[in-house]
Write a structure and sequence with these properties.
8 helices, extended, five-stranded antiparallel sheet, about 550 residues, alpha+beta
Length: about 550
């Protein structure tokens, strides 16, 4: 006889156990992403769910940051209903991530108490390998190096160029970070050029790179990614182009370079001063000493102090007084003074600055030769000015008339001598700071003059050049001049459009579409003059508004 056992009691037991375990099940940590494959220029969204009363381990977020840049992080609360009808809440941490490398990247497990999420693997492909049907000559990217075998601490230049004749949106560059090099942006901007009978916008960015250590470096490809409208498919599509930079072999400091000297790999270096060794001096004199170093191939901030060790080598009877050095882009001026405290023939030591001629690849020296300075003792008249007097108790037999005459003559001579040396002292006191200020003025004057001329030129261009191109119907020249003026005040196309009224925007769009879009309606002279007039009002407003250019993600232009 077969007995059937009722399962109803077991169902109730299972149900009760589920009710008891439900809160613990909700306490688990889960992680989800919106994709598992992506290109290196794309982003993904990561959601991490955890009980509202708990927090995830901070170390897990730090592990995530080793593989991904966290572009955005948000937190919100999610409400759900359990099996027994109770409402529970959980905390959702949302991350917007961009990969730092290509390949298979693992999002780590996130822990909260004794619970942990499952790791997630993401496959990241290089954006340069993204397939697209865009013609190769529509966008051309290249990268060139001024030097592929530089020395340590030798600046060299990387020039990136992007030529394009299509409208692009969300354009971005990746691969412009060089951890092994110090990078300084020298210039960037956009111009119009004609290539193979086609007009292109040409974006150039110039970077100066300097390596701190010798070795062989393989720089990553520089990849441009952007959206464009595909007229064939009628959709906006994304494309990528890559430029190979190649390998850089950084050479070490040559063995024959002086060990204790500052390493200077430059094109040229000169050292000169204003001392005249043919002139005679007296004890108590002091003279201005100005030394000038001029360099090509490196910033003047790298130049050593030419007088750093000379004070310890000065002969007895010479003292050196120094002011801070004046340094600009290519020159270092050291302002100092020499005073003489002892008579005789004094020899100033030779000054030698080693440098490496990168054109000839050999060691050279910038020198100031040793000089002999003739210093005379102070004369009797000069002693009188210093308060010197004959020794006391010195008896001299003279008659009263001669004494009176000599006394008057001595008084007159002493007074004249005193007045003469007093005038000399005053002149020297004025000449010393005046000479220093004059030399500094002369040293700075070319730079100031150039700056003033540039500012004046920019102002004149902003006032007149646009109107001149408009009257000549030179549309390409008008556009290039407009871009030049916009770069001078760091005004982007987006800012220009936002600042213009409707008439100005229509004039600019007509100009832009005529040059770079399928619309071939030529802008008339009146619309260009209108745009020039409206731009003049913006020029002074934006001239002093310099925005920070240090962006982690380089944009070709704002749209």
């Amino acid at each position: 006889m077969i007995r059937y056992i009722s399962l109803a009691p077991f169902k109730w037991i299972v149900f009760c156990c589920a009710m008891i375990a439900a809160p613990h099940l909700l306490a688990e940590v889960t992680a989800r992403t919106d994709r598992y494959e992506m290109y290196s220029d794309e982003t993904l969204q990561l959601n991490v769910n955890v009980d509202s009363r708990s927090n995830i381990n901070r170390a897990d977020i730090e592990s995530l940051q080793t593989l991904f840049d966290i572009l955005e992080q948000r937190q919100y609360t999610s409400t759900s209903t359990t099996l027994n009808g109770q409402r529970t809440t959980s905390k959702v941490l949302q991350f917007r991530l961009r990969p730092k490398n290509t390949g298979i990247l693992t999002i780590p497990a996130f822990r909260s108490g004794n619970e942990a999420s499952q790791p997630i693997q993401i496959t990241v492909y290089s954006a340069a390998k993204r397939p697209n049907k865009l013609p190769q000559d529509a966008v051309i990217i290249s990268a060139t190096l001024s030097e592929q075998t530089p020395y340590v601490k030798q600046p060299f230049v990387l020039t990136l160029e992007v030529a394009y004749n299509i409208e692009m949106q969300n354009a971005a560059l990746e691969g412009l970070t060089f951890p092994a090099f110090d990078s300084v942006e020298l210039n960037k901007g956009t111009t119009i050029e004609t290539r193979s009978n086609k007009q292109y916008k040409v974006y150039r960015q110039v970077l100066q790179l300097t390596a701190d250590q010798a070795g062989r470096y393989s720089l990553p490809d520089i990849v441009l990614s952007a959206d464009y409208y595909n007229a064939t498919s009628g959709q906006v599509e994304r494309f990528s182009r890559a430029a190979q930079v190649g390998r850089i072999d950084v050479r070490a400091i040559p063995k024959n370079y002086p060990t204790n000297a500052i390493w200077l790999p430059v094109t040229s270096l000169t050292l000169e001063d204003n001392l005249d060794s043919n002139q005679s001096y007296q004890v108590g004199d002091y003279i201005d000493w100005l030394t000038l170093m001029t360099v090509e191939g490196a910033p003047a901030t790298q130049l050593p102090d030419p007088l750093a060790n000379i004070e310890a080598q000065l002969p007895t009877g010479v003292r050196l007084y120094r002011n801070p050095a004046e340094i600009d882009d290519s020159r270092r001026v050291d302002v100092s003074a020499l005073s003489f405290t002892a008579a005789g023939s004094l020899r100033l030591p030779e000054i030698r600055i080693p440098w490496w001629n990168i054109d000839k690849d050999k060691l050279e020296w910038a020198t100031l030769p040793a000089r002999n300075m003739r210093v005379a003792a102070v004369s009797q008249n000069s002693n009188a000015t210093n308060g010197l007097s004959p020794a006391p108790n010195q008896a001299v037999a003279i008659d009263s008339e001669q004494a009176s005459s000599d006394e008057t003559e001595t008084e007159t001579t002493t007074q004249k001598s005193f007045n003469f040396w007093k005038a000399i002292a005053i002149l020297l006191a004025i000449a010393w700071p005046a000479t220093v200020l004059y030399f500094i003025f002369i040293a700075r004057k070319p730079v100031q003059k150039t700056t003033e001329q540039n500012n004046k030129t920019v102002d004149t261009d902003a006032e007149q050049s646009l109107a001149r191109y408009a009257k000549q119907n030179d549309i390409t020249g008008f556009y290039n001049e407009l871009m030049t003026q916009m770069r001078a005040i760091e005004l982007t196309e987006k800012q220009l459009i936002n600042a213009l009224d409707d008439d100005g925007v229509n004039a600019f769009e007509t100009l832009n579409n005529y040059l770079f879009a399928e619309q071939r309606q030529q802008p008339d002279q009146d619309s260009l003059l209108l745009l020039a007039k409206k731009f003049r009002k913006l020029f002074k407003q934006y001239k002093a508004n310099n925005r920070s250019k240090n962006k982690s993600k380089q944009q070709l232009f704002d749209l």
